[in-house]
UniProtKB/TrEMBL annotation:
UniProt source species: Jiella sonneratiae
Alphabetical list of InterPro entries matching this protein: DUF1223, Thioredoxin-like_sf
Protein name: DUF1223 domain-containing protein
One Pfam family in the UniProt entry: DUF1223
């Protein structure tokens, strides 16, 4: 295993493209929700509390997350848990998404911190200037025709709609992906490379799931609010992505995205 100055690498392992993850959690009373639409950039950071190279990338993502048209997501992976600290947000499912991107980019290794921009580019997550240059090269909507994507709360449900999607004959239909995340968290690290530090993470992913493939007929889905907004006193959110699928089944460009955050009572 090699350690690069700005990132940590591990060998890529074969794995299925996407695994479905649904949290079955109790209902809760929620109040105001905030929707971020007209998103131009989706930033997916693959990070770990057990990686000493990751905190600068976590801090940088927090700054990008404040931009009005940026959706920022922190996917905490689990493959650094063995070095002494089990990531409190770590998930093998998040690692699977990163491995799927490795197939897309023909990367022989997976690493942290890795930032994926709009499903098109990957870069070391702490390289601010390079990230900004790549963001300038890629802006949603990436589709040839505008896609209408919506998410809203209706009582105790989340109503998701997607329409206006066109695919060329023979091309795979894009997929609809639902991601749930916490707003922000600080964790005191007791062991491992970051021992003694308190690390902050922005929009740590709690679960993500493939809702289906979306064609010209569009899609409308209703989900229980409790499935993505767990019981508690913190702000939680969900994001909906329309993402192209490459011929080999790996994830491609993100074509549209929207985000909703819900505050507790």
């Amino acid at each position: 295993m090699r350690v690069l100055p700005a990132c940590r690498l591990v060998r890529k392992a074969a794995a299925p493209l996407f695994l479905l993850v649904v949290l079955a959690l109790p209902a809760h009373g929620w109040c105001a929700e905030r929707i971020k639409s007209q998103i131009t950039h989706v930033l997916e950071l693959f990070t770990s509390q057990g990686c000493s190279s990751c905190p600068p990338a976590d801090d940088l993502l927090a700054r990008f997350a404040d931009a009005p048209h940026v959706l920022a997501l922190s996917y905490h992976v689990d493959y650094w848990d063995y070095i002494g600290w089990r990531d409190t947000f770590g998930s093998g499912h998040n690692s699977e998404r990163q491995r799927a991107y490795a197939r897309s980019f023909a990367n022989k290794m997976i690493y942290t911190p890795q930032l994926v921009i709009n499903g098109l580019y990957d870069v070391v997550g702490s390289h601010a200037e390079k990230i900004r240059r790549l963001m300038a090269k890629s802006s949603l909507p990436a589709a040839t025709t505008p896609i209408s994507l919506g998410v809203k709360r209706v009582g105790d449900s989340i109503h998701i709609t997607a329409s206006g999607i066109r695919t060329a004959p023979g091309e795979p239909k894009p997929m609809l992906v639902l991601v749930s995340f916490a707003d922000r968290a600080e964790v005191s690290i007791e062991r491992g490379e970051n021992r003694g530090r308190t690390l902050a993470t922005t929009h740590p992913v709690r679960s993500w799931q493939l809702m289906g493939m979306v064609g010209e007929d569009g899609m409308a889905v209703d989900m229980p609010l409790s499935s993505v907004m767990p019981d508690g006193e913190e702000t939680y959110g969900c994001a909906v992505l329309v993402q192209a699928v490459r011929p080999d089944g790996s994830p491609g460009a993100i074509l549209a995205a929207t985000q909703m955050e819900v505050d507790p009572d």
